[in-house]
Specification:
By secondary structure, the chain is of the alpha/beta class. The protein contains 12 helices and 5 strands. The chain has one domain: 3-Layer(aba) Sandwich (Rossmann fold).
């Protein structure tokens, strides 16, 4: 296969997400561990080591929510046979500006990403499976199954909000990862994913990494000097849940503003219509 470095063409074509749709920098690191295993901390560590940009779920959710629509399209293609399955072209549209990628939904496409970027090093963030299960149960699963998430997801669609694809993407991801039952299938899904990635990657190109191990094994694997600052260790349970609450508040405010804008526009059109009828009568 050709090196992804040699294919890093620079063009001005633009994809559905508003980004340049071709690879601008070589993809160097695929961090394919499940969420709540230190993926956000690893993302910040990779940025510190100079991997710009390092893509994370938050990029799609908070920075460019149109990308959730593209990821959802990829999930439907892979799981339901609807549309073209994602390969190098589709990933470059989403990740062409990135030298590294971490977390879901990208990790669900581990086989496809490994095939698309054969020169990239692969990292599996690891964690005790029971600790991981408890963490997901008290963070991601609450966010995905809460009533407020469902309501805001519905109203975002009705109001044509920019983030209207967030909720359906996460619902689809929960379905394909855990068959809709995390309590029953979470551990099995975790183990199968990690075993599958191990089977796809040569040992010399794979690092199984716990964030508590610090810089040394990560930098040795990537061939980078060890930074002076401590390795990042963020996005613990309390921080995640606060961010989720803040996100809900921001979503409510944005939707209320959209309702007010629509109401003001409707009132203006009604006034203009009434004025025209009066003039014509």
């Amino acid at each position: 296969m050709a090196s992804n470095t040699s294919q890093s063409s620079k063009t001005s074509s633009t994809g559905q997400n508003g980004r340049v749709a071709d690879r601008q920098v070589p993809m160097k690191v695929l961090a394919l561990g499940y969420g709540r295993t230190g993926t956000r901390s690893l993302r910040d560590a990779l940025l510190t080591l100079g991997y710009h940009h390092t893509y994370h779920t938050f990029d799609a959710v908070y920075v460019n929510p149109r990308e959730c629509k593209i990821w959802l399209k990829g999930l439907h293609a892979k799981c339901d046979g609807v549309g073209k399955k994602f390969g190098r072209e589709e990933f470059d549209q989403l990740l062409g500006h990135c030298q590294a990628v971490a977390d879901m939904p990208a990790a669900y496409f581990a086989p496809e990403l490994i095939q698309a970027y054969p020169d990239a090093k692969v990292i599996l963030t690891i964690r005790d499976i029971d600790e991981w299960h408890e963490s997901v149960k008290n963070t991601l699963q609450i966010a995905d199954s809460s009533l407020i998430s469902g309501i805001l997801g519905f109203t975002a669609k009705i109001l044509f909000m920019p983030n209207r694809w967030n909720y359906p993407m996460f619902q689809k991801l929960n379905k394909v990862l855990y068959d809709g039952d995390f309590k029953k299938n979470g551990r099995k899904s975790f183990e199968q994913h990690y075993d599958h990635v191990r089977s796809l990657v040569p040992p010399e190109n794979l690092l199984e990494y716990h964030m508590k191990d610090g810089w040394e094994p990560l930098c040795r694997f990537l061939g980078k000097p060890i930074p002076a600052e401590p390795v990042p260790y963020i996005n613990q349970r309390e921080g995640f849940n606060k961010k989720f609450r803040d996100w809900n508040v921001a979503s409510i405010q944005a939707q209320l503003k959209r309702v007010l804008d629509i109401s003001a526009y409707a009132a203006l059109m009604a006034w203009v219509g009434a004025a025209l009828l009066t003039r014509l009568s």
